[in-house]
Automatic annotation (TrEMBL):
Region (Uridylyltransferase): 1-275
Domain notes: Has four distinct domains: an N-terminal nucleotidyltransferase (NT) domain responsible for UTase activity, a central HD domain that encodes UR activity, and two C-terminal ACT domains that seem to have a role in glutamine sensing.
EC number from the UniProt entry: 2.7.7.59, 3.1.4.-
Annotated coiled-coil segments of the chain: none
Activity: how regulated: Uridylyltransferase (UTase) activity is inhibited by glutamine, while glutamine activates uridylyl-removing (UR) activity.
Catalytic activity annotation: [protein-PII]-L-tyrosine + UTP = [protein-PII]-uridylyl-L-tyrosine + diphosphate; [protein-PII]-uridylyl-L-tyrosine + H2O = [protein-PII]-L-tyrosine + UMP + H(+)
Cofactor: Mg(2+)
Protein name: Bifunctional uridylyltransferase/uridylyl-removing enzyme
Family: Belongs to the GlnD family.
Length: 741
């Protein structure tokens, strides 16, 4: 829009500088006047400084060019131009670039204005050559400078007073991206970046005109004038436009730095090699730190592939390649309603991935994928918060809440409900109706569409409706007044709902700002939650563990093992019946772990002298004979599962939780295990119990998003429930088995 005016300002400034240089008798050789920074790029705003350097070649008389400098600067000052000037020799310029990565990056934009053209060209080419040659050593330093600036200033898309230059996603980042591209180590979508950069420059030009001075921060009173200058209907549209630009540059910047980090980790190869693909999920592969599609992937036949790829990228904290995401948006068919189980599971894995969620969610947003997954997202996209305490716009706050909730999934029985409620808790914002009231029916409809059962749908809607309740009561009511607890329990009627509301309250507050979860507020909220839990426990009993008996196959009576595989939606159901013995559960679990079969849920119970286990797994087409051969090899000890399944907790996983539930059963000791959903967890737990000569009389094994929640009813072989000492011994053994050392 104002590019022509920037070119005119640059041309006028060049005319001033050339006139001053010529009037001072500046030589044509040995000395050059060069422009750097925004002036070097030809991007002068109405009130920009002129950044210029008088450069002298080696051997030029120092007194001569120092006298020349004064004769050049004074006419420029007299003209009213604001000048940022320096006088350096060529070796001094190159030495400064060697010593300061900011100088080196800035000199990539150097431009000849007057004097010795070849000297200016030599400065530029030498700087660029050194920049490329030393990129692997210099980019980590530049990366840290960028991070420090981001921490100090914040993000353009979310600041209440956006800083067009220094904020993350601003003009400074756009310039850094050009410096990254100049290294030849990484590529950035040049046309997209230049479009955003030019539009940010347009906004800055209009801001200077509105403020009547050089300014990079947009105060509230300028939005109206910016909207008029940009040809937009109102202030809200202007805000959205600027924040969209900031978000896009932020996305390009994060993607470029991820790729730069990957390039720096790789040893330079003499010849370019074909990218290696590591299969990580059906249709999904990992290549050079990015999630891409397998060569044989068929997006048109797999509606879950988009969510599967996104979840793998987030869980592994790697890049979801934007071309891959864009292709999946184009080619994947819409998800059926309600969603299949795998789609819901993959969404929960994505939301519970922790810090890896944010960059993947940004890619989904930038490529239009969120319109397919969650069309209601547009309601809150880039919506500013009314309260100044919020650090982010509503959409980013929601994602940050999911990140915070991911650290709390060990505290709740339904982590899938927690992270989906975190995603939807502010979905009602942007209307005149109070957002929790408006959001509850929207969340209910979305949860039903995602395929949650009726109980979970109502629980999610309940959490959205009352997500402010716990903090409001805790900070405004007397905790010792019985009516305070009653006011909370009027809307929260179960221990599970209370735990979920407590975790959502903490995640929401932490995502808002540090002030929203101060030690004082946290103490009040957690104390009220503890009191409410005590009140609920006094009036409730744990549900009984019940199973339905099935007929025992005739062959099992004679000592055989029966394995039946039934196809189900998105996988298989495997039923195993055998004579009961200590360690049987561990051996069956080892079969699935060794064959890298993902267990989604399982139930185990005893029927007299026989043990029955039913396993819902993610893989289709399993061969029962192959499973039987594997089990036989394990039970005969021809295969040692412990030697091949010794993997323990990996970096980034939450610590596992092992809890004894003495109130849950009178005839057995109940051990509840929560750990990251990874191969071998059930085997490790059941093997640890078998090693103590304990028998698992029944078990309920389930996967809720990224977390395995396994409940074991354990007895002594010839007795009932474990003693307190033996129960503690069992819990310790299980914890040691699934933890890192």
């Amino acid at each position: 829009m104002t590019a022509a005016e920037r070119a005119e300002r640059t041309e006028a400034a060049d005319g001033l500088c050339v006139g001053a240089y010529d009037a001072a008798g500046g030589p044509d050789t040995g000395v050059a006047l060069v422009a750097v920074g925004g002036y070097g790029r030809g991007e002068l705003a109405p009130y920009s400084d002129l950044d210029v350097v008088l450069v002298a070649d080696e051997g030029v008389d120092e007194e001569l060019w120092h006298d020349l400098a004064g004769q050049v600067w004074y006419p420029l000052w007299d003209s009213g131009a604001k000048l940022d000037h320096a006088v350096r020799t060529l070796p001094e310029m190159l030495a400064a670039a060697e010593g300061d990565v900011r100088v080196a990056s800035g000199l990539l934009d150097v431009r000849h204005v007057a004097g010795d053209h070849s000297l200016a060209l030599r400065l530029r080419t030498t700087t660029l050559t050194h920049w490329r040659r030393q990129a692997r050593e210099r980019l980590p330093e530049l990366r840290e400078l960028v991070r420090s600036r981001h921490r100090l200033v914040g993000e353009l898309a979310h600041l209440s007073l956006p800083d067009l230059k220094e904020a993350e996603g601003g003009l400074r980042d756009a310039t850094v991206l050009k410096s990254l591209t100049a290294t030849w180590l990484v590529d950035v979508p040049a046309a997209d970046l230049e479009r955003c950069r030019q539009q940010l420059l347009d906004v800055r030009d209009l801001l200077h005109a509105a403020a009547g001075r050089a300014s990079d921060r947009i105060a509230p009173e300028y939005w109206g004038q910016l909207a008029e200058g940009l040809g937009l209907p109102d202030e809200a549209s202007a805000q959205r436009h600027v924040r969209e630009l900031g978000r896009r540059v932020t996305h390009l910047s994060r993607l470029a730095w991820r790729r730069t980090d990957d390039a720096l980790r790789r040893t330079p190869a003499a010849k370019p090699r074909r990218p290696e693909l590591e299969r990580v999920a059906p249709g999904v592969a990992l290549s050079r730190g990015e999630i891409v599609l397998e060569a044989a992937a068929k997006p048109a036949a797999d509606p879950v592939l988009l969510l599967r790829a996104a979840a793998e990228a987030a869980v592994r904290d790697v890049v979801l390649a934007p071309p891959t995401a864009a292709r999946l948006v184009r080619e994947c068919p819409p998800l059926p309603e309600p969603w299949p189980d795998e789609a819901r599971q993959q969404l929960v894995r994505l939301l519970a991935a922790g810090p890896g969620l944010l960059p993947v969610w940004e890619t989904l947003d930038e490529t239009g994928a969120l319109d397919r997954i969650l069309p209601e997202w547009e309601r809150i996209r880039l919506l500013p918060h009314a309260s100044a305490i919020h650090r982010f716009t509503v959409d980013r706050h929601v994602v940050e809440t999911c990140v915070e909730a991911a650290a709390l999934i060990r505290d709740v029985s339904r982590p899938d409900v927690l992270v989906v409620a975190a995603l939807l808790h502010d979905i009602g914002k942007g209307e005149l109706t109070e957002h929790s009231v408006a959001g509850a029916p929207i969340a209910r409809a979305i949860a039903a569409r995602m395929g949650f059962g009726p109980h979970e749908v109502e629980l999610i809607a309940q959490l959205v409706r009352w997500h402010l309740l716990l903090a409001d009561i805790a900070t405004t009511r007397d905790p010792d007044d019985p009516a305070t607890i009653d006011a909370l329990l009027e809307h929260v009627d179960s221990l599970d709902a209370l735990a979920l509301l407590t975790a959502l309250t903490e995640a929401d507050a932490k995502a808002t700002s540090p002030k929203a979860w101060s030690s004082w507020r946290a103490g009040l909220v957690l104390d009220l939650s503890r009191r409410a839990r005590s009140a609920l426990e006094r009036g409730s009993a744990p549900p009984a563990f019940t199973v339905e008996e099935i007929p025992v196959p005739a062959g099992v009576v004679g000592g055989d093992v029966s394995i039946v595989v039934e196809p189900v939606v998105d996988g298989s159901r495997v039923t195993v019946v055998a004579v009961d013995r200590v360690g049987l559960l561990a051996d069956v679990a080892a079969v699935f772990a060794l064959r890298r079969v993902t267990v989604r849920a399982a139930r185990l119970w005893a029927q007299g002298d026989y043990a029955v286990s039913v396993w819902d797994v993610a893989e289709a087409g399993l061969d029962p004979r192959a499973l039987g051969d594997q089990l036989d090899a394990i039970t005969s000890r021809r295969v040692d599962p412990a030697a091949r399944l010794g993997a323990r907790q990996v970096a980034g996983e939450l610590d596992p939780a092992v809890v004894l539930r003495p109130e849950a059963s009178d005839h057995a000791t109940v051990i509840e295990v929560r750990a990251a959903d990874r191969l071998g967890v059930v085997y490790l737990v059941s093997a640890a119990l078998a090693a103590l000569d304990m028998t698992v009389r029944s078990a309920h094994i389930s996967t809720l998003g990224p977390q395995a929640v396994d409940v074991f009813y354990v007895q002594e072989v010839a007795a009932g429930a474990l003693s307190e000492t033996r129960a503690a011994e069992a819990a310790h053994a299980v914890r040691r088995a699934i933890s890192s050392g």
